[in-house]
């Protein structure tokens, strides 16, 4: 099975944180209030991997998920996102957005994708986003409603977990992974690493970086891992749990060797990760 076909098949199966008192004034002196320094208006930090959830206020319109990278240069902000949840968008199509971000408000507008223009309006604060979205034109024209977002921090460092095949037999994985600090042009962040499996069929593996839809990467809450072993390639596609536990649940396929099988897996990442 081709790698793209494997990723798409897995995607279908999966459907991704006492103060001391001030001294009293001396006798005869007059207490005066301490001068207050002016508060500078700061632009919130918004760069990194993001997942947005859009809840439509229009009857009959399904909820949507936008995932990918957000970057800033001064007050200028740009994004490369992908849409899930609507037949009007192809998940593999990158949607570029541009706009401005300030302490008070943010506005992001996409390029037209099949005539559809996406607009985000709201605020970035404390690694989260709260606001609204609207889509004008094309198939999804008229979608609008509440938009919330979460900044998904780097998942790199320790990896462990258990794979369970269709016959309910299990094997484990341990390893070290590293997530790229910069996104690819499609908004995904590549993952590299080395793993060890406690099954002689696979033994050690090398995690190769990639971009949507193949190789190893994270896009929003979606995590794809591709481990090359001496006896085939293990491909995993899962969803990072939003509770901050570091759990990733999903499905896997081993192909291209003498250990071909498929099943489910629950992995855990720990270390430099929180949100």
Walk me through the structure.
Helix content is 4%, strand content 51%. The protein has 275 residues and is mostly beta strands. Strands 9, 10, 11, 12, 13, 14, 15, 16 and 17 form a 9-stranded antiparallel sheet that branches. An 8-stranded antiparallel β-barrel has the order 1-2-3-4-5-6-7-8. A hairpin with a 2-residue loop joins strand 13 (217-219) and strand 14. The longest helix has 12 residues, at 3-14. The two termini are 36 Å apart. 33% of the residues are buried. The model is unreliable at 12-41 (pLDDT under 50).
What distinguishing features does this structure have?
275 residues; mainly beta; nine-stranded antiparallel sheet; eight-stranded antiparallel β-barrel; 4% helix; elongated
- N-to-C SSE series? HEEEEEEEEEEEEEEEEE
**Percentage of β-strand residues:** over 45%
Number of helices: 1
Overall pLDDT: 85
Low-confidence stretches: 12-41
- Helical residues, percent: under 10%
Strand tally is 17
Structural class given helices, strands, pairing?
mainly beta
The profile of the biggest β sheet is: 9 strands, antiparallel
Task: Tell me the radius of gyration.
Answer: 23 Å
End-to-end CA span: 36 Å
Shape: elongated
Outline the secondary-structure elements.
Elements: H1 3-14, E1 48-56, E2 64-73, E3 76-84, E4 95-101, E5 106-110, E6 117-125, E7 128-136, E8 144-152, E9 157-165, E10 170-179, E11 189-197, E12 204-207, E13 217-219, E14 222-229, E15 232-240, E16 247-255, E17 261-271
Antiparallel strand pairs: 1-2, 1-8, 2-3, 3-4, 4-5, 5-6, 6-7, 7-8, 9-10, 9-17, 10-11, 11-12, 11-13, 12-14, 13-14, 14-15, 15-16, 16-17
